[in-house]
Design brief:
This protein is an alpha/beta fold and 247 residues long. It has a single domain, classed as 3-Layer(aba) Sandwich (Rossmann fold), CATH 3.40.50.720. Helices cover 45% and strands 17% of the residues. It has nine helices and seven strands, in the order E-H-E-H-E-H-E-H-E-H-H-E-H-H-H-E. The protein has a seven-stranded parallel β-sheet, with helices on both faces. Strand 1, helix 1 and strand 2 form a beta-alpha-beta unit. It is globular, with a radius of gyration of 17 Å. It starts with a strand and ends with a strand.
Length: 247
């Protein structure tokens, strides 16, 4: 049966690089995206050019119905073997005192609840205890939880801190069910997520705070994800890999 990987938020940035990289590793891919159909279709075309199958599925991971549709698409393709929880959002840079309830709910609904919803669905399919064949889950986090992002994204840092704790706990919870759960903590990466937060030149502005003196690329993060998904990481459980240029 074909090995299938779901990559959430796969139309751009890190998710895009992960989807293409995992296709090169022999997976058929469910390319989840939130709104940019043209970008998602481009990723699908690139995967097909690599000789793998791919389908683009629009969906908000904060919606349980949308998550169900994403996983149903994977079921139609083959056996789910990998999940990369990459979908996430930031918001405009703000101090906490100015943050609205709507902003906070969106931040945690997408970044935290969405990841948990997707993990729950993956476990139902992968768990050997439930009749599955095992698999790998990689949750994208950030170095923000240990920096705190004061004055800008404290809510984002808190949400990613929740993902770190969830990854550690879930990794230990399902390790004996054939599922390896791990996480990657990127630093300042050259993607357009910074523009969506209102600071498009954020990486360049903070370059001198990075010991390696440059921003990272989406492909450099994808390499860590691909390793964690692969059999080469067969003894990695509840591991958080920091890829941040030393920051």
């Amino acid at each position: 049966m074909t090995k299938v990987a779901i990559v959430t938020g796969a139309s751009r940035g890190i998710g895009r690089a992960c989807a293409i990289g995992l296709a090169a590793d022999g997976f058929d891919i469910v390319v989840n995206y939130a709104g940019n159909t043209a970008a998602a279709d481009e990723v699908v075309a690139l995967i097909i050019a690599l000789g793998r199958k791919a389908v683009a599925v629009k969906g908000d991971v904060a919606s349980e119905a949308d998550v169900a549709a994403i996983f149903a698409a994977a079921d139609r393709m083959g056996t789910l073997a990998a999940l990369v929880n990459n979908a996430g959002v930031v918001d405009k840079a703000q101090p906490v005192v100015e943050m609205s309830t709507e902003r906070l709910r969106r931040m945690f609904d997408i970044n935290v609840m969405g990841t948990i919803f997707c993990c729950r669905e993956a476990i139902r399919r992968m768990s050997t205890r439930l009749g599955g064949k095992g698999g790998a889950i990689v949750n994208l986090s950030s170095i923000a939880p240990r920096l705190g992002a004061p004055g800008q994204y404290v809510d984002y840092a808190a949400a990613k801190g929740a993902i770190d704790s969830f990854t550690l706990g879930l990794g230990r919870e399902v390790a004996n069910e054939g599922i390896r759960v791990n996480g990657v903590q990127p630093g300042l990466i050259l993607t357009d997520i910074h523009a969506s937060g209102g600071i498009p030149d954020r990486v360049e502005a903070l370059r001198d705070t990075i010991p390696i003196k440059r921003g990272g690329t989406a492909e450099e993060i994808a390499e860590a994800v691909r390793w964690l998904v692969s059999d080469k990481a067969s003894y990695a459980v509840g591991t958080l890999i920091t890829v941040s240029g030393g920051r």
